[in-house]
UniProtKB/TrEMBL annotation, chain A:
Family in the record: Belongs to the small heat shock protein (HSP20) family.
Matches recorded under Pfam families: HSP20
InterPro entries to which the protein is assigned, alphabetical: A-crystallin/Hsp20_dom, HSP20-like_chaperone, Small_HSP
Domain SHSP residue range list: 30-142
Superkingdom in the source lineage: Bacteria
Protein name: HSP20 family protein
Segment forming the signal sequence: none
UniProtKB/TrEMBL annotation, chain B:
Matching InterPro entries: A-crystallin/Hsp20_dom, HSP20-like_chaperone, Small_HSP
Name of this chain's protein: Molecular chaperone IbpA, HSP20 family
Domain SHSP as annotated: residue spans: 21-124
Originating organism: Malonomonas rubra DSM 5091
UniProt record similarity statement: Belongs to the small heat shock protein (HSP20) family.
Length: 142, 124
């Protein structure tokens, strides 16, 4: 049975052990956490930068909405053309639709939001609304 | 300098290198399916460009390896995964393309491994 398999995974235990010792020791050598869907938010002072790791999205179905301080990211993973009679060996990648909601720490200027999708990473820059930015108060001196 | 001091110095050096280049290692998620004609591997490699990608088949072992180019202030990601391919796969005729952070690798089967239809003659 084993000989008939077209493909099988190599055991990389040794490599992983080496990496474990080479690294800081307490970090996992290889991370099997789902990478797809990971979201990072950075506050850059006058804007938020949101980075979502979403490889293989259907770029036309990416839907980004902003309301007040809420950001909604929605979309669908592209469906590859797979023949019906295909025989599956691994099926680990994300599929179907997704939607994520983020509540940011300040209101957003929805008109100035910019987004780009490159190499499977969706980057959204959300400038804060003028009302959320600190104002410098001039002090009058007599 | 005593041995201990030397060891400490070494460690400090190592630590600096680690901090300068944080590297997160990942096992990419894959889809693998087989049709009558070929074996297709789809691998999630977000943030990877063609230049970062290293793909090879040596002695029937397929290695997917990618390391992101360094960007100031961002932890780099490295991806690594290996598969053993059957002898009935013609890796030389394989094609690969990278799109939206997904690698698609098509590996045709050798002629001998493709299903053949045998005509049945009816004799009268």
């Amino acid at each position: 049975m084993f000989g008939l398999q077209m493909i099988h995974e190599m055991d990389n235990m040794q490599r992983e052990m080496e990496q474990l010792f080479r690294g800081l020791g307490f970090q996992a050598a290889s991370c099997d956490m789902p990478q797809s869907g990971e979201i990072r938010v950075k506050d850059q002072g006058d804007a938020f930068q949101v980075e979502a790791v979403l490889p293989g999205l259907d770029a036309e179905k990416i839907d980004i909405k902003v309301l007040g301080r809420r950001l909604t990211l929605a979309g669908e993973f592209a469906r590859p053309d797979i023949p019906e009679a295909a025989n599956w060996h691994r099926r680990e990648r994300s599929r179907g639709q997704f939607e994520r909601n983020l509540q940011l720490a300040a209101n957003i200027d929805a008109e100035k939001v910019e987004a780009e999708y490159q190499q499977g990473i969706l980057r959204v820059v959300l400038p804060k609304a003028a009302s959320a930015l600190p104002k410098k108060i001039a002090v009058k001196t007599a | 300098m005593t041995d201990k001091q030397m060891i400490n110095r070494e460690e400090q050096k190592l630590e600096k290198v680690e901090r300068a280049l944080p590297l997160q290692r990942f096992t990419p998620d894959v889809d693998i399916y087989e049709s009558e004609q070929e074996l297709v591997v789809l691998a999630d490699l977000p943030g990877v460009t063609e230049q970062d990608m290293h793909l090879e088949v040596e002695r029937g072992i397929l290695t997917l390896e990618a390391e992101q180019a360094a960007v100031e202030g961002v932890a780099r990601k490295a991806y690594y995964r290996q598969f053993k391919l059957s002898e009935r796969i013609d890796a030389d005729a394989g094609t690969a393309e990278l799109k939206d952070g997904v690698l698609q690798l098509r590996l045709p089967k050798t002629e001998a491994a493709k299903p053949k239809r045998i005509e049945v003659k009816t004799l009268h």
